[in-house]
Specification:
mainly beta, 7-stranded mixed sheet, 4-stranded antiparallel sheet, about 0% helix
Length: about 110
Amino acid sequence: QLVESGGGLVQPGGSLRLSCALSGFTWEHYIIAWFRQAPGKAHEGIACINNNGGSTEYADSVKGRFTISRDNAKNTVYLQMNSLKPEDTAVYYCNAGVWWGQGTQVTVSS
């Protein structure tokens, strides 16, 4: 089970931290990824992290602004989002293999 939290409404230039709580499977062995889907747009993979947190990758659209991290002891993966832009508005999803969370809405607007 994956449960996202931390979404909300934020002004342009602001920050949010999303959390993904994982349980019910041996998620420690999985690459964990964050995706997002904006209205009328395709599903977009934006960040991923390997099983020990030693390797991360980012989409060009978020590189330098977003940071993915994981705390295996707390069964949680995070997405720190800084310098948010209106085009970051989307539903954000956590993914591990075939498992998906329900999504959390992020809205960037003044």
